[in-house]
Amino acid sequence: MTADGAPGAPVVRAEGLRFGYSGREVLRGVDLDVRAGELVALIGLNGCGKSTFLRLAAGLAAPSAGRVLLAGDDVSRLSRRAAARRVALLHQSAPAVPGLTVRQLVRQGRYAARGPLGMLGGGDDEPAVRAMADTGTTAWADRPVDALSGGERQRVRLAMALAQDTRVLFLDEPTTYLDLRHQLEVLQTVVRLRAERDLTVVMVLHDLNHAARFADRIVALRDGRIAADGPPHRVVTPALLAEVLGVRGRVGRDEVGGWPVCYPDHPVGSPEPLRNENHIH
């Protein structure tokens, strides 16, 4: 953020971004700026291009048309290591590595900075140590990752992404498979670290209520295009629920925080279900 609290200059810029798999176009000309210091939530149905956008913006795939600029440089022209020194991507899932300790996994985030020879040297450098401290995982450093709970593993994976020591963080469905407590724990950790480290964060979320509560800005994708873009209080409407997420529903306000709260009722096109009029007194 700038001194007056407004977002800074664009650090991620997508221009006419297009991409497809096996003849099916997933992104169909996306133009999107993410400014320094923003926390942006990408929402939309499965297959609308959210995860694909993150992969393209992180330089893990090349677009069929258009480009993504990271701080003004075309990410497709950067090496993988050079891109990883600018943006860290926490994938939706990762294969388990039996026997790998927390410390060893977090150190994998240092590969882009240290390279293969530097990784052979062993030992934790300052960014890895700080990443574990910031995510509350230091006490688990010598425990096997596969012995941790789902919520604990996700915090360790977040530490690995933070260990890349970038100013831009992409999170692909960071709350997948977590119970409600651990979903809130992860999202509140992301919000805290964003402020403490002055990060720019883009995260894919399925839960619109989480997006409305934690993000500064919501970008909704539909059929590979941007269908809505703006602050939660403006974007989260019954029309968005119907047109982007395919459900009829209502939108209210949280009594304490004031953010929008969604009450989905039934899928678009299905008969309206009978309401349960029973109340617990």
From TrEMBL:
Predominant localisation class: membrane
Protein name as catalogued: Cobalamin/Fe(3+)-siderophore ABC transporter ATP-binding protein
Ranges of residues in domain ABC transporter: 12-248
Membrane topology: Peripheral membrane protein
Top-level taxon of origin: Bacteria
Native organism: Streptomyces solincola
Annotated compartments: Cell membrane
InterPro entries named among the record's database cross-references: AAA+_ATPase, ABC_transporter-like_ATP-bd, ABC_transporter-like_CS, P-loop_NTPase, Siderophore_ABC-ATPase
Keywords, ordered alphabetically: ATP-binding, Cell membrane, Ion transport, Iron, Iron transport, Membrane, Nucleotide-binding, Transport
